[in-house]
Design goal:
One of its GO terms (biological process) is 'de novo' IMP biosynthetic process. The chain has 13 helices and 17 strands. The protein is α+β, with helices and mostly antiparallel strands. It has 3 domains: 79 residues, Rossmann fold (3-Layer(aba) Sandwich); 66 residues, Dna Ligase, domain 1, CATH 3.30.1490; 194 residues, ATP-grasp fold, B domain (D-amino Acid Aminotransferase, Chain A, domain 1). The N terminus is likely disordered.
Length: 391
């Protein structure tokens, strides 16, 4: 029987109903909220303090990490940038899904590039930067337009530099003069002229069976995802199949279990892998209202050894990231088919505060509803709707 953790009753009911999530942010929160219907107990681990906490109200629970790991039927994670010792401890239990190999591939761009190369999966041409002089090699091989990224710990546009001119090259090389390349190698990628970014959310169970959600079209501002449109318009069956083939190769190589997200650049009718994420993903939030089973519930089903839920699409959805602003007024809910998911964080710039899923029975109805929503959100967020409203 699922437990709320707002009472003093026992946290650990039995060894068959506890799932431990490494990380205690909004992804852990949403896994908890959508998985309680499965009759499972969900706790999270604050990766910084190593405390076991309630994934919703973040209260510290009277349970050590070792006790939680011992009692759990499965251990999973909400993000890949975890302390190595915590990953190793989880892996040693034999219950960590996806495994440490998958987490490493998502956490380190160099490991990720090696994985893709070994599988002959198309990705952006790149050069590994292990010393300052390697930038000259990158410029010669990749051309004038380069995206430079830290190999680890980069997300939402952090840990990136854009080299689009000779002056940019001079400035960034000077900026990196004192950079510790031994501690943090960089990856230089050729800047690709792509038509759009797409992502595939797939799910793999313990027996290696796969299910897929349809490709999602994503739009960014200042390096952050701000809008997802699902299912992505104008996707051919062949394009969806190419994405699924890449997913199968990666998941099978990693002995994967759980939700795996792959971000692609579409170039003509080809797909280049931008990056992989071994977890539930921001571009899959639309599945909460758009599908029979959300990515969050399906991830918990997979790692718990339950049958996977249907990924059938019920309605087209626009997912709007609510970044850096206070909660919208209740007037928003006068708009039909609008669903706010709020993370209960303190407001700061570039922080993901929540998201809005806007549902329509048809693509045209979705557009009409998004136009209404635009009037109820801050101007800085409303402008991010242009790719959908101006198409």
């Amino acid at each position: 029987m699922a437990q709320s953790y707002f009472s003093d009753t026992s946290i650990v009911k039995s060894e068959s109903d506890l799932i431990v999530i490494l990380g205690h942010g909004q992804l852990a929160r949403m896994m908890y909220l959508e998985a309680t219907q499965l009759g499972l107990n969900i706790v999270a681990v604050n990766a910084n303090t190593k405390e076991v906490v309630n994934p919703v109200n973040k209260s510290v629970l009277p349970l050590s990490v070792d006790e939680a790991f011992s009692a759990a039927v499965a251990i999973t994670s909400e993000f890949e940038h975890l302390p190595l010792e915590l990953v190793e401890k989880a892996e040693a239990t034999g219950k960590f899904l996806p495994n440490a190999k998958a987490i490493a591939a998502g956490a380190d761009r160099i490991v990720e590039k090696q994985l893709l190369a070994g599988l002959n999966i198309n990705n952006c041409q790149h050069v590994i930067i292990r010393q300052l002089d390697d930038l000259e090699i990158a410029k010669a091989e990749l051309g004038e337009r380069i995206i430079l990224k830290t190999s680890r710990d980069g997300y939402d546009g952090y840990g990136q530099w854009r080299i689009f001119s000779d002056q940019d090259f001079v400035n960034i090389k000077q900026e990196l003069h004192s950079h510790n390349f031994d501690k943090m190698p960089l990856v230089a990628e050729r800047c690709i002229n792509f038509q759009r970014e797409l992502s595939l959310i797939g799910i793999t169970d313990k027996n290696g069976n796969h299910l897929f959600y349809p490709l999602t079209e994503n739009h960014h501002a200042d390096g952050q995802l701000v809008l997802s449109i699902a299912p992505a318009p104008k996707v051919t069956p062949e394009l969806q199949q190419k994405a699924e083939i890449a997913y199968k190769k990666i998941s099978e190589q990693l002995d994967y279990c759980g939700v795996l997200a792959i971000e692609f650049f579409q170039v003509g009718e080809d797909l280049l892998v931008n990056e992989i994420a071994p977890r539930v993903h921001n571009s899959g939030h639309w599945t909460q209202q758009g599908c029979a089973t959300s990515q969050f519930e399906n991830h918990i089903r997979a790692v718990a050894g339950f049958p996977l839920g249907s990924t059938k699409v019920l309605s087209p959805v626009a997912m709007i990231n609510y970044v850096g602003h206070a909660k919208p007024k209740a007037d928003l809910f006068a708009v039909p088919n609008v669903h706010l998911h709020w993370y209960d964080k303190s407001v700061r710039p570039k922080r993901k505060m929540g998201h809005i899923n806007v549902v329509g029975n048809t693509a045209e109805q979705l557009l009409q509803t998004v136009r209404q929503v635009k009037a109820f959100i801050p101007e800085g967020l409303a402008k991010n709707l242009a790719p959908l409203l101006n198409q």
